[in-house]
Specification:
It is a single chain. The protein has helices at residues 29-38, 51-60, 78-92, 115-143, 162-182, 206-218, and strands spanning 20-23, 44-48, 68-72, 97-100, 146-153, 187-194, 227-230. By secondary structure, it is an alpha/beta fold. It has a single domain, classed as NAD(P)-binding Rossmann-like Domain (Rossmann fold). The radius of gyration is 17 Å and the shape is globular. 41% of the residues are buried.
């Protein structure tokens, strides 16, 4: 199976249709979300920094017989991310749905991190999502439809996760800004807030969490929500 900077597999009849772009495609939520959209026959573009993560997720999509494209890019490098998104659009068209799933998760308390460390976390958790939206949302709006989803968390801030708490609050603000700018033009912006540790076979099974992404994407416009909360009981 050939892997390189780009791996493509065409579905039945060789038809390429606009589909889903997953930024931060790796084991866990990224992989589960890719599988969920692939089940619906959507073309999938996977973007991540590591080739091993991309390879594992792409292999897991093989049973669904959909077009798959893998691209390496660092979500904090705007030029790299823009180039990857341009290639995705060139191959599969403007996506129906884009999912930003990249995050820097680490425990830290007030005053422990340097300014540089805080900026690194903010770049991954918020700025990368903002840059992806800035690149894709205008094209979705020009078409009159599209969904931009961000993996959120920390419905309540936690003092042992200061940088992540700040980042997830930033995600909520970003979603509000996207809705204000592009909601009336047909772009549904929302976050999926996961309130617990993700692990298969638990209340935070990634396959269960992935259902929120599909429901948000398929919500009728008059019922659009800006956030879905997974507490382990939803």
């Amino acid at each position: 199976m050939p892997y390189g900077p780009q791996y493509r597999r065409r579905g039945r009849g060789g038809r390429i249709m606009p589909g889903a772009v997953i930024i931060g495609a790796g084991p866990g939520i990224g992989q589960a979300v890719a599988r969920r959209f692939a089940r619906e026959g959507m073309a999938i573009t996977l973007i991540a920094r590591g080739p091993e993560a991309l390879r594992g997720v792409a292999d897991g999509l093989a049973p669904h017989d959909v077009p798959v494209m893998t691209l390496r890019a660092d979500s904090t490098d705007r030029a790299e991310l823009d180039a990857a998104l341009d290639r995705a659009v060139g191959e599969h068209g403007v996506p129906e749905v884009a999912v930003y799933n990249a995050a820097l998760v680490r425990p830290d308390r007030l005053g422990e991190l340097s300014v540089r460390d805080h900026m690194e976390a903010w770049a991954v958790n918020v700025v990368g999502a903002q840059n992806a939206a800035a690149h894709l949302a205008p094209a979705m709006a020009a078409r009159g439809s599209g969904t931009f989803l961000v993996t959120g968390g920390m419905p309540e801030p936690k003092p042992q996760y200061v940088s992540l708490s700040l980042g997830k609050a930033g995600v909520r603000t970003l979603i509000t800004l996207l809705d204000q700018q592009y909601g009336s033009l047909g772009v549904h912006a929302a976050s999926v807030t996961v309130d617990g540790p993700v692990a298969p076979g638990t209340d935070f099974d990634p396959d269960d969490i992935a259902e929120h992404y599909w429901r948000l994407h398929t919500q009728p416009r008059h019922l659009w929500a800006r956030e879905a909360l997974h507490t382990g009981r939803s």
